[in-house]
Design brief:
The chain is mainly α. It has two domains: 56 residues; 71 residues. Helix content is 81%, strand content 3%. The protein has five helices and two strands. The protein has a two-stranded antiparallel sheet. The chain is elongated. The two termini are 18 Å apart.
Length: 129
């Protein structure tokens, strides 16, 4: 499969799953929420794998300062998924209030959007090999 097609497809899939996870989480619909979260994490893993292949097709250094900014932001965004993944079960077990989980989840979503925007900027600025 073409890496660009795979990347864009899985990234879009991840974003849709995150939106569904946010919506079902707010409605406290546990089963569809957990399904959407699981699919979002799997989609993100696949999107990252394709992103690495896409990066091999570009001279990312030619994009300038946006490349290290994007790469750092992408790492932080990926790591931010750990927050809601850890706090979610604690909320279900009654050991933690939902507010922290909610804030961490929205932080992960916001960082994912920021990484997506900077990634697109980086690819638009880079020279294709």
């Amino acid at each position: 499969m073409n890496p660009e097609v795979g990347f864009i497809g899985l990234l879009a899939f991840t974003v849709v799953c995150l939106a569904v996870a946010a919506w079902t989480g707010r409605q406290r619909r546990l089963r569809p929420h957990l399904t959407a979260v699981t699919l979002a994490v799997l989609g993100l893993a696949g999107a990252i794998a394709f992103a690495l292949r896409v990066g091999e097709r570009y001279d990312l250094a030619s994009a300038g300062v946006i490349t290290p900014v994007h790469l750092a932001l992408a790492r932080v965004a990926t790591a931010s998924y750990l927050g809601p993944l850890v706090t979610g079960p604690l909320v279900l077990a009654g050991r933690l209030r939902g507010r922290l989980h909610h804030r961490l989840a929205w932080t992960a979503i916001a960082l994912t959007v920021a990484a997506t925007v900077t990634g697109a900027w980086m690819l638009l600025a880079a020279e294709r090999l």
